[in-house]
Amino acid sequence: MTSRLYLRWPDSLWKRLTVVGGGDHLPPNEWPRVPCWVWWGGTNGARERYGTTVQEGGYGYVRVPVSALPLPPGVQRVHEVVYWLLRGAVPVGQVLRHTCDNRRCANPWHCIAGTQGDNLADAYARGRR
Description:
By secondary structure, this protein is of the alpha+beta class. The protein is built from 4 helices and 8 strands. The strands form 4 sheets. A two-stranded antiparallel sheet has the order 1-2.
């Protein structure tokens, strides 16, 4: 069975994003860069171990079809897919770090590439750990 999401790719991706302050009627590459682009699709849940939260949930996820090459097919984080589509691939060995601390934000200009160590340093500096 083919998912309805696949039939309208990538239009179905853009329809699940809301630009805070407007701009939804424009093509995605012309959306404003300052406000968050909030994802209203599926997200991951919080992971708990022995009654303690070990990983916060809330990152948006989308299933990328095989026909969307060069994107890696399968389930991917929304902010990584949008970054790839509008700004290009993330350098090998690096991760995307949110500058706005909004897990549902998919604005590629709110993400910067860096190492996992940089990402953890950001989390500690902003009181998220």
